[in-house]
Amino acid sequence: DGQNLRIAVAANAQFVTDSLKKAFQKGHPGKIELIVSSSGKLTAQIEHGAPYDIFMSADMLYAKTIFNAGNALTKPKVYAAGKLVLWTTKDLPVTGLDALKNPAIKSIAVASPKTAPYGVAAITALKKAGIYASIKNKIVFGESISQVNQYQLSGATDVAFTALSIVQSPELRHKGKWTEISSNLYEPIDQGVIILKHAGNANSDQLKQAKDFYQFLFSAQGKAIFTYFGYNVK
Amino acid sequence: MIKISIEKAIPTTLYSQPLRVNLEIGTGEFVVIYGKSGVGKTSLLRMIAGLLKPDQGVIEVNQQIWFNHLNKVNLPIQKRHLGFVFQELALFPNMTVMENLLYAANNPKDQSYLQRLLNITDMQSLRSRKPATLSGGQQQRLAIIRALARKPTILLLDEPFSSLDYQLAQQLRAELKILHKELKFTTLLVSHDPNDINGQIDQLVELKHGNAHQLRGTALHPTQNKSSLIGKILRVYPFESAFIIEIAVNQEILKVPTDPKTAQGCHPNQMVQITFIDGQILLSQLG
Amino acid sequence: MIKISIEKAIPTTLYSQPLRVNLEIGTGEFVVIYGKSGVGKTSLLRMIAGLLKPDQGVIEVNQQIWFNHLNKVNLPIQKRHLGFVFQELALFPNMTVMENLLYAANNPKDQSYLQRLLNITDMQSLRSRKPATLSGGQQQRLAIIRALARKPTILLLDEPFSSLDYQLAQQLRAELKILHKELKFTTLLVSHDPNDINGQIDQLVELKHGNAHQLRGTALHPTQNKSSLIGKILRVYPFESAFIIEIAVNQEILKVPTDPKTAQGCHPNQMVQITFIDGQILLSQLG
Amino acid sequence: MDFNFQPLILSLELSLITTVLLLIIGIPIASFLAFKTFRGKSILEAIVSLPLVLPPSVLGFYLLVAFSPNNFFGKFLDSYFNLRLVFSFSGLVLGSLIYSLPFMIHPLQAGLQALAPNLKEASYSLGKSKKETMFKVLLPNIKPAILTGMVLTFAHTLGEFGVVLMIGGNLEGSTKVASIAIYDAVESLDFRSAHIYSLVLIIISFVILLITYGLNKRLFDNRVHL
Amino acid sequence: MDFNFQPLILSLELSLITTVLLLIIGIPIASFLAFKTFRGKSILEAIVSLPLVLPPSVLGFYLLVAFSPNNFFGKFLDSYFNLRLVFSFSGLVLGSLIYSLPFMIHPLQAGLQALAPNLKEASYSLGKSKKETMFKVLLPNIKPAILTGMVLTFAHTLGEFGVVLMIGGNLEGSTKVASIAIYDAVESLDFRSAHIYSLVLIIISFVILLITYGLNKRLFDNRVHL
Ligand SMILES: Nc1ncnc2c1ncn2[C@@H]1O[C@H](COP(=O)(O)OP(=O)(O)OP(=O)(O)O)[C@@H](O)[C@H]1O
Ligand SMILES: Nc1ncnc2c1ncn2[C@@H]1O[C@H](COP(=O)(O)OP(=O)(O)OP(=O)(O)O)[C@@H](O)[C@H]1O
Ligand SMILES: [Mg+2]
Ligand SMILES: [Mg+2]
């Protein structure tokens, strides 16, 4: 399997990575395969020998775990930071966090804080804004940020906390309305990337390809793409 | 009164004509049906029971229509109030002997009747056994008393004594006749055993196919090979390892050999019936 | 030579003693076993076949030990080269009549033998039928010829004629005797039918429990209620609806009534055997 | 580490309710499929098997859409029965019923088909209704098949995950069942909790299975030969 | 939209291989459990049922650990047989075999137990070996049970997802089966692809089930009554 460059991507970064891949391939022929899954699953797989070359995690923790176990060639490095938004596809006002107290809003989708950084951010924000206790019973948890999106799109929940990159994606750009949550209310959602040991075990071409893509993430063109999708970049 | 007039194309290659049955049976009669293997005896019982649908015709029981091909009447078997002793027994494997009986009984409180049924079949000691642990004959006895347990209006028996030894079968035949008189049910007994065919019965029905290999319409005609005489015993005396019985029948004096045990029960001046069928001869005492 | 000397505690409440069997059977003999229902006939056959393990004792067949409790020999049933006609038939529901036979046959090319088996049971026209579509008697016939199909060394039959009408059963008895002579297998036939018990057999074994309700050791004693005479026909003449046959037996002249059909087959100077058991009398021609 | 017994209890509850309800629903359906012959029967049989074919998470997704108050079915339940099936225990039960349907129906149907037809006939001939025949004669004689159906259903619901994940919403005490708790633990790399949950789940299930099989052996003694 | 037939073909392949292999493995195990009585049999039966109880993704996690070249079993296979079970098609097959084992064993065992014991005896009395008896007498008489086992296994493997997701790693052409492809599509909110995959999967399965049930009805005609 020497030819394919395999990039393991956390679910919330799948849209932006798809664009990055297309842009990157213009200058670099050769196949790139995206493996999209939850960061937890990808981490477990990488630890047990998954043939992936690059891992773009949803936060820093997963990337660190892999690095500490000696399965990465590079130290975790932040490639982008996500932004939290409050989103609805229904005819409800979502002007700010206070709007959640509206009795017309019966259910709020939040990613599980145990497994998803956006979940941690949402809960922190609600607590800081002082409304967590009053709306606690309206919250339902999605396994990941993509499940939160599914809850919202199917109409099962009234509003959802999701990533700016999602509501900015080509698929959802015109679906519903959203407000950004003030970045003071939560810790930055830093997402880390590492080159994996597998890339080094393969032929040198592939390692070079991996390094090129890694570099591309931090290039001006890469940063522009991240910004376009609603990420913060340094 | 049971009136049967039905037709059923039995998918057999033996005969090219369908099974046709025309029968009239009085309420409370004891009827024996016999005929060659594969001729349709079981099928006839199944049609009377409502387990097999005749192609056409009518079955009428005590003025009630059970089956009529024309206006599509087909009374469900549950409403026919039957007792059916299946040729393959069809005991309930999950129930003990007693549970089989209790399930069958209309009135479970009728304990003494169930005890009596167990007694006449020598099954008392087997009451808590499951069918799989019974011998062939024990299973057959259970099938008989299960059918009797609910005191049916019509009792259908499909070769019910085939696995029983002679003495036990005779005992059951006698007990069945007593119950038949007592409970006044109509009995249709399928059997090929001369002891049934030659017994004291109200009707004998032969299911038979014609000589042109056609299944002939059947009716109340007595068998060609069966006959009986009645006479009076004159003498009983030993002869070699056996006994000879002298019987006066009209002008003739018959001399019939018999086994020691039967001879013991025979005494001068007794009336006996001598029945013969297919080369077999049977002595039975009258009165 | 088959030597059986076994004991088995049959879990029955009827008798407090175990079933004990001591038997010697010559190779090629035709043995009939009878006894009351539930006495252990089927269990005996199952022990000979290796389907039921005796508690103790030895079974030896032609110098080969089939079972020995002491040194734990128990020859698997497959190596005993038997034919077994089960009381419950145990036909293979997935196979047609012919497939049942072909499966059983050692040599499937022995077509003419299988055809002959089908012929003697009148089953030719049913060859491609599955067992579920056969009548009770047809199933029983299939069970008999399936056991014969492999030309066994020992043939075990458990009440094989119980569901068959008299003529068919007699026909099969005759054919079985012919095959028995031809193929020289040893036959153990369990039956309660006088036609088997009174037939021309080498040994008659009664399984019986003693008067103290104990299951007695069994041996080669003939039944008490059975006997037979041989005589010569003098005359056959009509009498009422029947016929009378005069038979000279030693110094006596018997006068036995019979049905018209049997009478047709009787002619002066013929030798006949008269067998009687339990009140039944049977005429059969000799030679 | 983050272990508590609530998810395990919830899982057992869900499995028990699903198994009991499916047994009640399954018996008439299985007997219908086993004994009736009609045109299009194969179609009905194929439909019963369909929940098997869809990956659970996909099935869950479609159930989510169906149950959602946006759509007809969900709206109907909400306004007429005040019943919300998304993110509620009742929703999990309904989802599990649909998901596990074939695991109950198939064994029951096969068991009933294997019974000798004359058992039914014998019971009818004694004047017994279809219902009485089913409960007193047919079902007691297919105990291994019933056991199979119940074990497959129970265990499968216990291990169910995709559907629950989709329509449950991971709510402590009402929809956070054991399978979800384990998944959560694995995802958050909290392997110790995952191991403990798994172990407890396995031990409980093992004991339940052991008891079931032990009982079954004792109860199913109809065909003892000497 | 991102739809292609490769995952569907891979799924069908995986299901077919798993079903055939499990039938081969399942027959001896089921007959052992059905006919032998020994102490600790209930324990063995409970073990066979265990793969059912663990949520598939958790089972997948433990399989991942077991198969991993980091660990003894995986290392052993790798160095002696040059066989890598993680992230490979053979790994999926092995995972599916373990996962679907109870779906094959249970129905087969129940079917064999329901057979009249004298069928076996009759065949033995004709000098037939255990093997011949099994294949020519016993199995042909439990066709509905075999069908149940095969349908449950096939369909279940087709819909399998948790285990595959964990040990497969979603690699195009070797481990990206249909269930994963649908999951992927749903996750990336590409509902159109998800619908199409699901529809095609349902249609294919439906046709396969329909043919199977239709055939079964024709083949299983042993007990026709007049
Ligand atoms: N599994 C069992 N458990 C308990 N008792 C049994 C079992 N199997 C058979 N028996 C008993 O053993 C005795 C002998 O049975 P067997 O079948 O050998 O009798 P048989 O002589 O063949 O009777 P029949 O003429 O009625 O067929 C019977 O009384 C029967 O009840
Ligand atoms: N499902 C079926 N398909 C085809 N033929 C059948 C079917 N069932 C019964 N038959 C045939 O119908 C005929 C009558 O069967 P039936 O069982 O009524 O006979 P019977 O008189 O009871 O015979 P026996 O004395 O042998 O029990 C037989 O020749 C049998 O082969
Ligand atoms: Mg019959
Ligand atoms: Mg017997």
From TrEMBL, chains B, C:
Q: Which SUPFAM superfamilies match?
A: P-loop containing nucleoside triphosphate hydrolases (SSF52540)
Source superkingdom: Bacteria
Residue ranges of domain ABC transporter in the record: 1-234
Alphabetically list the UniProt keywords.
ATP-binding, Nucleotide-binding, Transport
Recorded hits in PROSITE patterns, A to Z, give:
ABC_TRANSPORTER_1, ABC_TRANSPORTER_2
Identify the InterPro entries for this entry: AAA+_ATPase, ABC_SmlMolc_Importer, ABC_transporter-like_ATP-bd, ABC_transporter-like_CS, P-loop_NTPase
Q: Does the keyword Nucleus apply?
A: no
Enumerate the GO terms in the molecular function aspect: ATP binding; ATP hydrolysis activity
The yes or no answer to whether the keyword ATP-binding is present is yes
Protein name as catalogued: ATP-binding cassette domain-containing protein
- What is the scientific name of the source organism? Arachidicoccus ginsenosidivorans
UniProtKB/TrEMBL annotation, chains D, E:
UniProt-annotated location(s): Cell membrane
Superkingdom of origin organism: Bacteria
The reply on keyword Transport is yes
Q: Give the family from UniProt.
A: Belongs to the binding-protein-dependent transport system permease family. CysTW subfamily.
Q: Which residues cross the membrane?
A: 12-35, 47-65, 85-105, 145-167, 196-215
Q: What does the protein in this record do?
A: Part of the binding-protein-dependent transport system for molybdenum; probably responsible for the translocation of the substrate across the membrane.
- Membrane topology listed for this record: Multi-pass membrane protein
Matching PROSITE patterns:
ABC_TM1 (PS50928)
- Organism for this UniProt entry: Arachidicoccus ginsenosidivorans
Q: GO MF terms on file?
A: molybdate ion transmembrane transporter activity
UniProt keyword list: Cell membrane, Membrane, Molybdenum, Transmembrane, Transmembrane helix, Transport
Q: What is this protein called?
A: Molybdenum transport system permease
Gene Ontology cellular component list: plasma membrane
Name the NCBIfam families for this protein. Answer: modB_ABC
All copies of domain ABC transmembrane type-1, residue ranges: 8-212
